[in-house]
Amino acid sequence: MPAVVLVGAQWGDEGKGKATDLLGSSVDYVVKFNGGNNAGHTVVIGDQKYALHLLPSGILSPGCVPVIANGVVVDLGVLIEELDGLESRGVDTSKLVISANAHVIPPYNRVLDKVAERFLGSRKLGTTGRGIGPTYADKMSRVGIRMQDLYDESILRQKVTAALDTKNQVLLKIYNRRAIEVEEVMEELLRHAERIRPMVRDTALVLNEALDADRTVLFEAGQATLLDVDHGTYPFVTSSNATSGGACTGSGVAPTRIDSVIGILKAYTSRVGEGPFPTELHDDNGEFLRKTGAEYGTTTGRPRRCGWVDAVMGRYAQRINGVTDFVITKLDVLTGLEKVPVCVAYDVQGVRHDSMPVNQSDFHHATPIYEELPGWWEDISQCRTFEELPENARNYVLRLEELIGARVSAIGVGPDREETIQRFDLLGRDS
Q1: In this model, does residue 194 exceed pLDDT 90?
Q2: Is 229 helix (H, G, I), strand (E, B) or coil?
Q3: What are the tens digits of pLDDT across the range 289-330?
Q4: Up-side HSE of residue 179: CA atoms within 13 Å toward CB?
Q5: Active-site positions?
Q6: Alpha helices, H only, 52-152
Q7: In whole angstroms, how far apart are CA 278 and each of 5, 123, 137, 292, 364?
Q8: Is 350 left (phi over 0), alpha (psi -120 to 50) or beta?
Q9: Cβ contacts of residue 60 below 8 Å, gap of 6+?
Q10: Strand pairing partners for 347?
Q11: Where are the beta strands (DSSP E) in 154-294?
Q12: How far apart are CA 401 and CA 391, in angstroms?
Protein backbone atom coordinates (compact mmCIF):
# COMPACT_ATOMS: atom_id res chain seq x y z
CA MET A 1 0.00 0.00 0.00
CA PRO A 2 1.21 3.57 -0.65
CA ALA A 3 3.05 6.13 1.43
CA VAL A 4 1.58 9.49 0.40
CA VAL A 5 2.73 13.00 1.33
CA LEU A 6 0.18 15.82 1.47
CA VAL A 7 1.52 19.39 1.30
CA GLY A 8 0.19 22.91 0.94
CA ALA A 9 1.10 24.51 -2.38
CA GLN A 10 0.74 28.14 -1.31
CA TRP A 11 1.21 29.97 2.03
CA GLY A 12 -0.97 27.63 4.05
CA ASP A 13 -4.71 27.62 4.80
CA GLU A 14 -5.38 25.76 1.54
CA GLY A 15 -7.65 23.15 3.13
CA LYS A 16 -5.14 20.40 3.97
CA GLY A 17 -7.27 19.33 6.91
CA LYS A 18 -10.26 18.63 4.69
CA ALA A 19 -8.10 16.72 2.22
CA THR A 20 -6.60 14.61 5.01
CA ASP A 21 -10.02 13.94 6.46
CA LEU A 22 -11.30 12.99 3.01
CA LEU A 23 -8.60 10.32 2.82
CA GLY A 24 -8.89 9.30 6.46
CA SER A 25 -11.15 6.31 5.89
CA SER A 26 -8.73 4.98 3.24
CA VAL A 27 -5.48 5.23 5.21
CA ASP A 28 -4.18 3.46 8.28
CA TYR A 29 -1.80 6.13 9.64
CA VAL A 30 -1.82 9.94 9.39
CA VAL A 31 1.50 11.53 10.33
CA LYS A 32 2.23 15.14 11.23
CA PHE A 33 5.92 15.60 10.45
CA ASN A 34 6.70 19.31 10.95
CA GLY A 35 5.61 22.45 12.72
CA GLY A 36 3.68 22.76 15.93
CA ASN A 37 0.61 24.64 17.09
CA ASN A 38 1.49 27.63 14.89
CA ALA A 39 -1.00 26.59 12.22
CA GLY A 40 -4.50 25.21 12.19
CA HIS A 41 -6.60 22.76 10.20
CA THR A 42 -10.36 23.20 10.12
CA VAL A 43 -12.37 20.06 9.39
CA VAL A 44 -16.15 20.07 8.89
CA ILE A 45 -18.00 16.78 9.34
CA GLY A 46 -21.76 17.14 8.97
CA ASP A 47 -22.83 19.91 11.34
CA GLN A 48 -19.65 19.55 13.44
CA LYS A 49 -16.64 21.81 12.96
CA TYR A 50 -13.24 20.90 14.40
CA ALA A 51 -10.24 23.24 14.65
CA LEU A 52 -7.00 21.30 15.07
CA HIS A 53 -3.66 22.95 15.76
CA LEU A 54 -1.19 20.34 16.95
CA LEU A 55 -2.97 17.05 16.37
CA PRO A 56 -2.98 15.34 12.95
CA SER A 57 -6.32 15.59 11.15
CA GLY A 58 -6.45 11.80 11.04
CA ILE A 59 -7.43 11.78 14.70
CA LEU A 60 -11.01 12.38 13.51
CA SER A 61 -11.04 9.19 11.42
CA PRO A 62 -12.03 6.03 13.35
CA GLY A 63 -9.56 3.22 12.80
CA CYS A 64 -6.77 5.58 11.74
CA VAL A 65 -3.62 5.90 13.87
CA PRO A 66 -2.61 9.57 14.27
CA VAL A 67 1.14 10.15 14.69
CA ILE A 68 3.08 13.20 15.90
CA ALA A 69 6.51 12.47 14.46
CA ASN A 70 10.02 13.61 15.39
CA GLY A 71 9.96 16.72 13.18
CA VAL A 72 7.19 18.34 15.23
CA VAL A 73 7.67 20.66 18.22
CA VAL A 74 5.10 19.99 20.94
CA ASP A 75 3.47 22.41 23.37
CA LEU A 76 2.32 20.00 26.07
CA GLY A 77 -0.42 22.29 27.37
CA VAL A 78 -1.90 22.73 23.90
CA LEU A 79 -1.67 18.98 23.27
CA ILE A 80 -3.65 18.15 26.41
CA GLU A 81 -6.17 20.92 25.73
CA GLU A 82 -6.83 19.57 22.24
CA LEU A 83 -7.11 15.99 23.47
CA ASP A 84 -9.54 17.00 26.22
CA GLY A 85 -11.59 19.07 23.77
CA LEU A 86 -11.97 16.21 21.32
CA GLU A 87 -12.71 13.64 24.03
CA SER A 88 -15.45 15.89 25.44
CA ARG A 89 -17.07 15.74 21.99
CA GLY A 90 -16.90 11.95 21.84
CA VAL A 91 -13.79 11.62 19.65
CA ASP A 92 -11.56 8.66 20.52
CA THR A 93 -7.96 9.89 20.93
CA SER A 94 -6.50 6.70 22.41
CA LYS A 95 -4.64 5.70 19.24
CA LEU A 96 -2.38 8.79 19.21
CA VAL A 97 1.35 8.05 19.02
CA ILE A 98 4.05 10.66 19.74
CA SER A 99 7.73 10.45 18.84
CA ALA A 100 10.17 10.20 21.73
CA ASN A 101 12.46 12.42 19.63
CA ALA A 102 9.95 15.23 19.09
CA HIS A 103 11.07 18.44 20.77
CA VAL A 104 9.05 20.09 23.53
CA ILE A 105 8.26 23.82 23.57
CA PRO A 106 9.37 25.11 26.99
CA PRO A 107 7.69 28.22 28.46
CA TYR A 108 10.81 30.36 28.13
CA ASN A 109 10.71 29.97 24.34
CA ARG A 110 7.15 31.25 24.19
CA VAL A 111 8.23 34.33 26.14
CA LEU A 112 11.28 34.89 23.95
CA ASP A 113 9.25 34.48 20.77
CA LYS A 114 6.77 37.20 21.78
CA VAL A 115 9.24 39.75 23.10
CA ALA A 116 11.62 39.28 20.16
CA GLU A 117 8.80 39.90 17.67
CA ARG A 118 7.76 43.08 19.49
CA PHE A 119 11.39 44.18 19.58
CA LEU A 120 11.57 43.98 15.76
CA GLY A 121 8.83 46.60 15.38
CA SER A 122 8.23 47.38 11.69
CA ARG A 123 10.64 44.58 10.75
CA LYS A 124 8.45 41.93 12.39
CA LEU A 125 8.08 38.54 10.68
CA GLY A 126 4.47 37.83 11.64
CA THR A 127 5.24 34.94 14.00
CA THR A 128 2.36 33.49 16.03
CA GLY A 129 4.40 33.94 19.22
CA ARG A 130 3.99 30.32 20.29
CA GLY A 131 7.66 29.53 20.76
CA ILE A 132 8.02 27.52 17.56
CA GLY A 133 11.05 29.32 16.09
CA PRO A 134 13.11 29.45 19.31
CA THR A 135 12.43 25.75 19.90
CA TYR A 136 13.66 24.81 16.43
CA ALA A 137 16.67 27.07 17.04
CA ASP A 138 17.38 25.15 20.26
CA LYS A 139 17.08 21.90 18.32
CA MET A 140 19.69 23.01 15.80
CA SER A 141 21.91 24.37 18.57
CA ARG A 142 21.65 20.97 20.29
CA VAL A 143 20.25 22.44 23.52
CA GLY A 144 16.63 21.38 22.98
CA ILE A 145 14.38 19.30 25.21
CA ARG A 146 12.83 16.16 23.71
CA MET A 147 9.80 14.16 24.77
CA GLN A 148 11.99 11.38 26.11
CA ASP A 149 13.68 13.85 28.49
CA LEU A 150 10.42 14.16 30.44
CA TYR A 151 11.02 10.66 31.79
CA ASP A 152 14.49 11.32 33.19
CA GLU A 153 14.04 14.18 35.65
CA SER A 154 17.77 14.53 36.29
CA ILE A 155 18.56 15.08 32.61
CA LEU A 156 15.55 17.35 32.21
CA ARG A 157 16.68 19.55 35.12
CA GLN A 158 20.21 19.76 33.72
CA LYS A 159 18.91 20.84 30.32
CA VAL A 160 16.49 23.43 31.72
CA THR A 161 19.13 24.88 34.03
CA ALA A 162 21.69 25.17 31.23
CA ALA A 163 19.15 26.78 28.91
CA LEU A 164 18.05 29.35 31.47
CA ASP A 165 21.65 30.34 32.24
CA THR A 166 21.72 31.90 28.78
CA LYS A 167 18.09 32.75 28.09
CA ASN A 168 17.59 34.63 31.35
CA GLN A 169 20.53 36.85 30.43
CA VAL A 170 18.78 37.67 27.16
CA LEU A 171 15.45 38.32 28.87
CA LEU A 172 17.00 40.54 31.56
CA LYS A 173 19.67 42.46 29.71
CA ILE A 174 18.22 42.82 26.22
CA TYR A 175 14.45 42.74 26.67
CA ASN A 176 14.19 44.00 30.26
CA ARG A 177 11.96 41.10 31.29
CA ARG A 178 12.01 39.08 34.49
CA ALA A 179 14.10 35.95 34.80
CA ILE A 180 12.32 32.58 34.62
CA GLU A 181 12.84 30.11 37.45
CA VAL A 182 13.99 26.53 36.85
CA GLU A 183 11.23 25.10 39.05
CA GLU A 184 8.60 27.05 37.13
CA VAL A 185 9.70 25.37 33.91
CA MET A 186 10.05 21.93 35.48
CA GLU A 187 6.56 22.08 36.91
CA GLU A 188 5.00 22.95 33.55
CA LEU A 189 6.93 20.32 31.61
CA LEU A 190 6.25 17.52 34.07
CA ARG A 191 2.59 18.35 34.68
CA HIS A 192 1.29 16.13 31.87
CA ALA A 193 4.23 13.74 31.46
CA GLU A 194 2.58 10.68 32.99
CA ARG A 195 -0.65 11.12 31.08
CA ILE A 196 1.09 11.01 27.71
CA ARG A 197 3.75 8.43 28.63
CA PRO A 198 1.82 5.54 26.96
CA MET A 199 1.73 7.53 23.70
CA VAL A 200 5.48 8.16 23.47
CA ARG A 201 7.10 5.69 21.10
CA ASP A 202 9.81 5.16 18.48
CA THR A 203 7.52 6.45 15.72
CA ALA A 204 10.10 5.89 12.94
CA LEU A 205 10.02 2.19 13.81
CA VAL A 206 6.21 2.21 14.06
CA LEU A 207 5.84 3.75 10.59
CA ASN A 208 8.40 1.58 8.86
CA GLU A 209 6.83 -1.55 10.33
CA ALA A 210 3.42 -0.31 9.15
CA LEU A 211 4.72 0.07 5.60
CA ASP A 212 6.34 -3.36 5.81
CA ALA A 213 2.93 -4.72 6.78
CA ASP A 214 1.35 -3.15 3.66
CA ARG A 215 -0.45 -0.41 5.56
CA THR A 216 -1.26 2.97 3.95
CA VAL A 217 0.51 5.95 5.54
CA LEU A 218 -0.39 9.58 4.85
CA PHE A 219 2.15 12.27 5.80
CA GLU A 220 0.47 15.60 6.54
CA ALA A 221 2.53 18.81 6.34
CA GLY A 222 1.90 21.78 8.55
CA GLN A 223 2.14 25.22 6.92
CA ALA A 224 2.97 25.09 3.18
CA THR A 225 5.55 25.22 0.41
CA LEU A 226 6.05 29.00 0.36
CA LEU A 227 6.55 28.93 4.14
CA ASP A 228 9.26 26.25 4.03
CA VAL A 229 12.40 27.49 5.79
CA ASP A 230 14.57 26.54 2.80
CA HIS A 231 12.23 26.94 -0.17
CA GLY A 232 9.76 29.58 0.97
CA THR A 233 9.74 33.38 0.84
CA TYR A 234 12.56 33.70 3.36
CA PRO A 235 12.70 35.26 5.94
CA PHE A 236 8.90 35.38 6.05
CA VAL A 237 8.67 31.63 6.56
CA THR A 238 8.13 29.05 9.26
CA SER A 239 11.01 27.33 11.08
CA SER A 240 10.69 23.86 9.58
CA ASN A 241 10.55 22.03 6.26
CA ALA A 242 6.93 22.03 5.11
CA THR A 243 7.72 20.49 1.71
CA SER A 244 7.61 16.82 0.77
CA GLY A 245 11.29 16.28 1.59
CA GLY A 246 10.51 17.23 5.18
CA ALA A 247 8.26 14.19 5.44
CA CYS A 248 11.33 11.95 5.34
CA THR A 249 13.54 13.82 7.81
CA GLY A 250 10.54 14.65 9.98
CA SER A 251 9.37 11.05 10.31
CA GLY A 252 12.30 8.69 9.76
CA VAL A 253 10.79 7.15 6.63
CA ALA A 254 13.16 6.96 3.66
CA PRO A 255 12.40 8.82 0.39
CA THR A 256 12.43 5.55 -1.53
CA ARG A 257 9.26 4.58 0.34
CA ILE A 258 7.22 7.61 -0.78
CA ASP A 259 4.84 6.71 -3.61
CA SER A 260 3.08 10.00 -4.39
CA VAL A 261 2.71 13.64 -3.34
CA ILE A 262 -0.60 15.48 -3.14
CA GLY A 263 -0.49 19.27 -3.37
CA ILE A 264 -3.36 21.35 -2.00
CA LEU A 265 -4.05 24.53 -3.97
CA LYS A 266 -6.84 26.91 -3.11
CA ALA A 267 -8.82 28.30 -6.08
CA TYR A 268 -7.47 31.70 -5.03
CA THR A 269 -4.59 32.65 -2.73
CA SER A 270 -4.37 33.79 0.89
CA ARG A 271 -1.61 34.58 3.33
CA VAL A 272 -1.39 35.34 7.06
CA GLY A 273 1.46 37.46 8.38
CA GLU A 274 4.12 39.53 6.66
CA GLY A 275 5.96 39.03 3.39
CA PRO A 276 5.56 39.57 -0.37
CA PHE A 277 2.33 38.54 -2.09
CA PRO A 278 2.22 39.39 -5.83
CA THR A 279 -1.50 38.76 -6.44
CA GLU A 280 -2.75 40.36 -3.21
CA LEU A 281 -5.92 42.42 -3.64
CA HIS A 282 -6.59 45.61 -1.70
CA ASP A 283 -10.00 46.26 -3.24
CA ASP A 284 -13.56 44.95 -3.11
CA ASN A 285 -12.48 41.71 -4.80
CA GLY A 286 -10.06 40.99 -1.95
CA GLU A 287 -12.79 41.67 0.61
CA PHE A 288 -15.19 39.44 -1.36
CA LEU A 289 -12.72 36.53 -1.23
CA ARG A 290 -12.08 37.11 2.47
CA LYS A 291 -15.73 37.23 3.47
CA THR A 292 -17.04 34.55 1.13
CA GLY A 293 -14.16 32.20 1.91
CA ALA A 294 -14.21 32.98 5.68
CA GLU A 295 -10.51 33.77 5.50
CA TYR A 296 -9.55 34.21 9.13
CA GLY A 297 -6.70 32.31 10.79
CA THR A 298 -7.68 29.08 12.55
CA THR A 299 -4.92 29.61 15.11
CA THR A 300 -4.71 33.41 15.41
CA GLY A 301 -8.07 34.65 14.15
CA ARG A 302 -6.21 37.21 12.05
CA PRO A 303 -7.84 38.28 8.76
CA ARG A 304 -5.98 36.63 5.90
CA ARG A 305 -4.62 38.65 3.01
CA CYS A 306 -6.38 37.49 -0.17
CA GLY A 307 -5.63 37.53 -3.89
CA TRP A 308 -6.17 35.69 -7.15
CA VAL A 309 -4.69 32.25 -7.76
CA ASP A 310 -1.00 32.23 -8.72
CA ALA A 311 -0.07 29.56 -11.26
CA VAL A 312 3.62 30.52 -11.08
CA MET A 313 3.52 29.53 -7.43
CA GLY A 314 1.63 26.36 -8.33
CA ARG A 315 4.32 25.35 -10.82
CA TYR A 316 6.99 26.06 -8.23
CA ALA A 317 5.21 23.91 -5.65
CA GLN A 318 4.84 21.10 -8.18
CA ARG A 319 8.57 21.16 -8.92
CA ILE A 320 9.85 21.48 -5.34
CA ASN A 321 7.54 18.78 -3.97
CA GLY A 322 7.27 16.47 -6.97
CA VAL A 323 3.48 16.82 -6.82
CA THR A 324 1.70 13.98 -8.63
CA ASP A 325 -1.87 15.10 -7.85
CA PHE A 326 -3.40 18.45 -6.97
CA VAL A 327 -6.53 19.09 -4.94
CA ILE A 328 -8.22 22.41 -5.75
CA THR A 329 -10.18 23.68 -2.74
CA LYS A 330 -12.85 26.36 -2.32
CA LEU A 331 -13.81 26.54 -5.98
CA ASP A 332 -17.30 27.52 -4.79
CA VAL A 333 -15.97 30.80 -3.38
CA LEU A 334 -15.41 32.08 -6.94
CA THR A 335 -19.09 31.59 -7.89
CA GLY A 336 -20.71 34.85 -8.95
CA LEU A 337 -17.64 36.53 -10.42
CA GLU A 338 -17.95 37.76 -13.99
CA LYS A 339 -14.24 37.25 -14.66
CA VAL A 340 -11.72 35.13 -12.75
CA PRO A 341 -8.10 36.25 -13.23
CA VAL A 342 -5.26 33.73 -13.08
CA CYS A 343 -1.66 34.86 -12.62
CA VAL A 344 0.34 33.11 -15.35
CA ALA A 345 3.66 34.98 -15.02
CA TYR A 346 5.34 37.94 -13.28
CA ASP A 347 6.64 41.21 -14.60
CA VAL A 348 9.77 42.38 -12.79
CA GLN A 349 10.92 45.77 -14.02
CA GLY A 350 9.88 44.98 -17.57
CA VAL A 351 11.21 41.41 -17.63
CA ARG A 352 8.73 38.51 -17.80
CA HIS A 353 9.26 35.65 -15.34
CA ASP A 354 7.43 32.38 -15.95
CA SER A 355 9.14 30.84 -12.90
CA MET A 356 9.60 32.12 -9.37
CA PRO A 357 12.40 34.74 -9.33
CA VAL A 358 15.41 33.42 -7.48
CA ASN A 359 16.16 36.88 -6.08
CA GLN A 360 14.15 37.87 -3.01
CA SER A 361 14.03 41.52 -4.08
CA ASP A 362 12.72 40.58 -7.53
CA PHE A 363 9.90 38.54 -6.01
CA HIS A 364 9.04 41.42 -3.70
CA HIS A 365 8.67 43.74 -6.73
CA ALA A 366 6.94 41.20 -8.99
CA THR A 367 3.76 42.38 -10.71
CA PRO A 368 1.33 39.64 -11.77
CA ILE A 369 0.56 39.05 -15.43
CA TYR A 370 -3.04 37.88 -15.58
CA GLU A 371 -5.10 35.78 -17.92
CA GLU A 372 -8.82 36.37 -17.40
CA LEU A 373 -11.22 33.45 -17.60
CA PRO A 374 -15.02 33.76 -17.72
CA GLY A 375 -16.79 33.17 -14.43
CA TRP A 376 -19.97 31.29 -13.55
CA TRP A 377 -23.11 32.02 -11.54
CA GLU A 378 -24.48 28.54 -10.90
CA ASP A 379 -24.40 27.02 -7.39
CA ILE A 380 -21.79 24.25 -7.56
CA SER A 381 -22.03 22.97 -3.98
CA GLN A 382 -24.22 20.02 -5.02
CA CYS A 383 -21.94 18.90 -7.87
CA ARG A 384 -20.34 15.52 -7.26
CA THR A 385 -18.83 14.81 -10.68
CA PHE A 386 -16.61 16.97 -12.84
CA GLU A 387 -19.19 16.86 -15.63
CA GLU A 388 -21.83 18.41 -13.34
CA LEU A 389 -19.80 21.60 -12.96
CA PRO A 390 -20.74 24.57 -15.16
CA GLU A 391 -18.64 24.74 -18.33
CA ASN A 392 -16.77 27.84 -17.20
CA ALA A 393 -15.90 26.22 -13.85
CA ARG A 394 -14.62 23.14 -15.67
CA ASN A 395 -12.55 25.32 -17.98
CA TYR A 396 -11.07 27.15 -14.99
CA VAL A 397 -9.94 23.86 -13.45
CA LEU A 398 -8.57 22.54 -16.74
CA ARG A 399 -6.61 25.73 -17.36
CA LEU A 400 -5.12 25.57 -13.86
CA GLU A 401 -4.22 21.93 -14.44
CA GLU A 402 -2.42 22.93 -17.64
CA LEU A 403 -0.57 25.80 -15.96
CA ILE A 404 0.60 23.99 -12.80
CA GLY A 405 1.88 20.84 -14.49
CA ALA A 406 0.05 18.02 -12.70
CA ARG A 407 -3.43 16.57 -12.80
CA VAL A 408 -6.22 17.96 -10.61
CA SER A 409 -7.59 14.86 -8.94
CA ALA A 410 -10.11 16.40 -6.54
CA ILE A 411 -12.06 19.64 -6.27
CA GLY A 412 -13.65 21.15 -3.17
CA VAL A 413 -17.04 22.74 -3.83
CA GLY A 414 -17.96 23.46 -0.20
CA PRO A 415 -16.59 23.14 3.35
CA ASP A 416 -18.12 19.77 4.21
CA ARG A 417 -16.33 16.46 3.63
CA GLU A 418 -19.05 15.40 1.19
CA GLU A 419 -18.81 18.57 -0.88
CA THR A 420 -15.97 17.23 -2.97
CA ILE A 421 -15.56 16.06 -6.55
CA GLN A 422 -13.07 13.23 -7.03
CA ARG A 423 -11.83 12.98 -10.62
CA PHE A 424 -9.06 10.49 -9.89
CA ASP A 425 -8.13 8.30 -6.93
CA LEU A 426 -5.80 10.30 -4.69
CA LEU A 427 -4.09 7.13 -3.48
CA GLY A 428 -3.11 6.14 -7.01
CA ARG A 429 -5.27 3.04 -7.19
CA ASP A 430 -6.53 4.01 -10.66
CA SER A 431 -3.07 4.63 -12.10
Answers
A1: yes
A2: coil
A3: 999 999 987 666 789 999 999 999 999 999 999 999 999 999
A4: 11
A5: 13, 41
A6: 76-88, 107-120, 132-140
A7: 27, 19, 30, 21, 7
A8: left
A9: 21, 24, 43, 45, 50, 52, 86, 91
A10: 352, 367
A11: 200-201, 217-220, 260-266, 268-271
A12: 15
